[in-house]
Specification:
This is Selenoprotein H. By secondary structure, the chain is of the alpha+beta class. The chain has three helices and two strands.
């Protein structure tokens, strides 16, 4: 379990990103991993939890137009510690690049 100090730092980082000096017109939630993917492939739509997520899961999947899918990241069988369930954004971006090339 993360210490209280670490959690507060993470929350502060999200607030900083959301308010990052650009003047947000409405309330905004920033998910760092989605930001990295959107910067790498801005033409791809990103869906966050299109269905109810499974308990303890964190997955990133590329859905192709032909109906197939490619798993970019799964944290289901990772951990403990819990932090292993979540990838570094660059890991997911590198995996996405493999499928877009």
């Amino acid at each position: 379990m993360a210490s209280r100090g670490r959690k507060r730092k993470a929350e502060a980082a999200v607030v900083k990103l959301a308010n990052g000096g650009e003047g947000v017109e409405e309330a905004t939630i920033v998910i760092e991993h989605c930001q990295a993917l959107r910067l790498e492939a801005p033409e791809l739509p990103v869906k966050v939890n299109p269905a109810k997520p499974r308990r303890g899961s964190f997955e990133v999947t590329l859905l192709r137009p032909d109906g197939s899918s490619a798993e970019l990241w799964t944290g289901i069988k990772k951990g403990p510690p819990r932090k292993l369930k979540f990838p570094e954004p660059q890991e997911v971006v590198e995996e996405l690049k493999k499928y877009l090339s």
